[in-house]
User: Fold this.
Amino acid sequence: MPHSEKLTDFVLKEASIFSPLANFFESRENKKALKRIDSHFRTDDKSKWDSFLRNTGRKSFVKNLSRDPRSDEKLVMHADNMNRMRSGKKLGTVSGSTGKRYDIVKLRGSPRLGCNCNDWRYKRSVALASSPDSEKDCRHIKQWKREKQTKVAGMSFLKQDRPEKVKDIYKALKRDHPTMPAEMKARIAARQGKPGKQKQGPPYKGPIKSASIPLSFFNALSEILSP
Ligand SMILES: [Zn+2]
Assistant:
């Protein structure tokens, strides 16, 4: 970014109390944005998309583009999502089929994920928000989601992001039933630890012989066995 634009950004951010000054810089930034937009629409040169991509890094460009009558809905969506991607949070990288690394980014202010591949840039970035993930995500994002899922599944149950109640039940089962398979413990704990679950129905009143077996285990078992 050239020095003068850095200064403009600084003034806009830091010195908004000097509103006349801020307005001056802002209108200058807007004028520049309008010029950039105009040059985009005036040329058929293919390289215009390279400068378009660069320009999407500026909020002023995206804002003014959305007001321009020559813009269609898809172009605005494309610019907006590229802007959100460029200022989003990088979640990780994945290797493409040719060994090239791609960045997976959470778009700023959106639950959507972005990628710096051309498929995402030209196709996925203009998929409607209401479309299924299969249309919004490129193959790299899909791969990243799969890798993440595998990682979470392989993580110890107690390290996963779960309610404390569920973890407590899991710990109790682990303590009292050391030979119970982890998968079974996880299933019972997840079922029995659901919010509000403990308040439902009367507690189990059967003859408990061993005090070391937690009530939650019987509750869960009776629930699993009942039709
Ligand atoms: Zn991609």
User: Anything to note?
Assistant: The first helix runs from residue 3 to 14. The first strand starts at residue 89 and ends at 95.
